[in-house]
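Onboarding guide, step 5: your first structure request.
Type a short instruction followed by the sequence, for example:

Predict the 3D structure of this protein.
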Amino acid sequence: MEKNVAGQKWIVFAFDRNTNVPQTGDAANITANLRIDGGAASAVTDTNPTELEGGFYAFDLTQEETNGNLIAIIPSSSTTDIQVIGIPAAVYTRPPGFNASVAQTGDSFARLGAPAGASVSADVAAVKGETAAILEDTAEIGAAGAGLTALPWNAAWDAEVQSECTDALNAYAPATGAALATVAGYIDTEVQAILDIVSHATYGNAAIRSRGDAAWVTATGFSTHSPADVWSHETRTLTSAGSGGATAQEVWEYANRSLTDKAGFSISGTKTTLDALNDITAASVWAVGTRALTDKEGFRLSAQGVDDIHDEVVENTLTWRQLSRLSFATLAGKTNGGGTATLNFRNHADSANRITATVDENGNRTSMTLNLG
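The system replies with structure tokens like these:
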């Protein structure tokens, strides 16, 4: 159907919905509405269609009734059990004269332009020939360039390659031969200095190793006596009284004599001589010790002493330290679980349950779990 063109028809078909038999002679009872581009229903100007045959009828449409891009027809019959449908039910319109403008004969010069060859067909044939040649070349190249192997070198490329290499080297600015020679000279000088040190007659590796192998085994300027030599020498000195040394017995006797022969010695204090020290009784010593111990102002327990008290077992296996923790949790710690079967007493940091008590409905503790750490 052409858009906005008069003199066009819309065919509808009527049939009995119970028997599917086409309905004839029902034109006076058939009407239809149109909906243009989804708009409101509008009754077809041609109130009743013209019957064709076999249940087909035709409505004549005005120009205005075709002025839309999408037009739907909704026909109906007032006859009982008769169903009417549009043939088709909806159409997309096309521009006026569209069919005539599409129909073409020969070459469409006005639309495609003049062909390069004798005709458009000749141009298409030429393109097809060129395409075949391209496909042939592509086949020789192969997938991913597999056919691009053993390509002959063209001497004309030499100058171009050399030019590109020269440009790359100039951009890179490599060291010149003279600069490399200077660097090589520096390296030679440093390596020679290292070799001179290593091979030095006094400080070189060989000299150090030689001195360690030979000179250091028997150290010059140090005693070469073994422990056995020293022990033998000391024993000889103590036992060889005839050569001027004292024997062990003589040393012991002299010491005893010095300790027992104390005439002329004196000490400060109440007891002025060693003999007078024999008069000190145990009671005197105890009395002095007692006086010192009972006069203890300014003294205090050491940290170890305090720990010993805290770690003293008081009841069963519990120490004072553990009992202090439990007491604090019970008297001053937070609690939770009140009103339930489990009551918790928290530690001072509120980071752990110090005591977990299971209680009955009367609040009596039936079991206790203690966290003593």
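Each response can be followed by summary notes, for example: The two ends are 97 Å apart (CA to CA).
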